[in-house]
Amino acid sequence: MQSLKHFKRVATDWFLWGMVLATVLAYFFPRFGATGGGMHAEYVIKVGVFVVFFLHGVNLSSEQIKKGLTNWRLHVMIQVFTFVVFPLIWLACQKLLGSYVPALLMLGFLYLCALPSTISSSVALTGSAGGNVPAAILNASMSSVIGIFITPWLVSLVVGTGAGGIDLGDTLLDLCAMLLLPLVLGQLMRPLLGKFFARHKKYTNLIDKLVILLLVYAAFCNSMISGMWQSQGNSVILTAFIGTALLLAVILLMTTRTARALKFDHADKVAAVFCATKKSLAAGAPMAALIFGSNPGLGLILLPIMIYHPMQLIVCSIIAESYASRHRQQLSQAALEEAQAA
Q1: CATH number of the domain that 13 lies in?
Q2: CB–CB of 2/320 below 8 Å?
Q3: Does the keyword Transmembrane helix apply (predicted)?
């Protein structure tokens, strides 16, 4: 019943249906959202991304981050999984399956594996399962900042930095100007604006999601105009879905086993599993627009993270309920044993 409840909650999420609608609109009205089109996506999106990361900075609690500083083993594990283990899994798959998977989709999986963790769902799931929330906030926030530099660097290792690749220097400058700068400005303005935006959290979340939907729409518009989807066929979507499901299953198994091997208590284990397996669509969509520019294959590059996002929410919500239930039973058993001993 709990599994069904979580599935219904995700299935009725307007944002997930908004991503579907964005792709449908891109199919019927590609020129409006493409670069140089009537929406002027190349300008609207830049403004939207700046505003979104400014709001992230305003909402980022430095007090909560300070509370999570002490547990270095947990922090190292999460960051290593986020930026080392994920890319190594991709590298192994590239060696084994690279010749069978379309190059742009393989690049999309690389981009997924190189992305930072997500803040909101990591913290929410950690809290609902009785996990270490300060550590989750610290690691998700740290991951978001590190990702501004590490994500484009990891991508450049594969696609190169010369002709046909990405200009790493210019890309990093763009990311700092469009992501890091507003994040820092937002954090500096937090003493003045923090309480106001905390009271209007639902509106800041709405802006965040609308900007992502604009990015998805623009990316798919450019892909439609280039003829990329027509040349790839529908099988690429099935391949992306299967690959994403396998990746999530493997990384959940690895993080769970690692947390157990490190003898983490319940709170740290929960934070480790939920922070180390998450990948951020909120950061991934804006960063993709800056890293890959108007690449006509951007829609296909974003496809894995667009599938991974709802999949991780559904699966991890079910796991969170299981963790919470098991933890309540353990606490009840411990209380009973203590009462009997007294």
Answers
A1: 1.20.1530.20
A2: no
A3: yes
CA angle centred on 254, ends 250 and 259, rounded to 5° = 150
Residue with tokens 């991709």: 90
Mean pLDDT of 60-73: 76
Which one, of 129, 71, 113, 135, lies nearest residue 251 by Cα?
A: 113
Q: Give how many domains the chain has, as a whole number.
A: 1
Reading the block at residue 338, the tokens are 């203590």
289-315 per-position pLDDT tens digit = 888 876 788 888 999 998 898 888 888
Residue 296: Cβ-neighbour burial (10 angstroms; 0-12, 13-18, 19+): buried
Q: Enumerate residues 6+ apart whose C-beta is below 8 A from 279.
A: 86, 112, 113, 115, 116, 117, 118, 305, 308, 309, 312
The residue that leads in pLDDT, 268 or 122, is 268
Which one-letter DSSP state was computed for residue 210? Answer: H
pTM: 0.83
pLDDT of residue 331: 63
DSSP 8-state code for residue 209: H
- Mind listing the pLDDT tens digit for each residue in 121-140? 788 888 888 888 888 888 88
Under the banding of pLDDT at 50, 70 and 90, the label for residue 74 is very high
**Residues spanned by the domain of 173:** 2-341
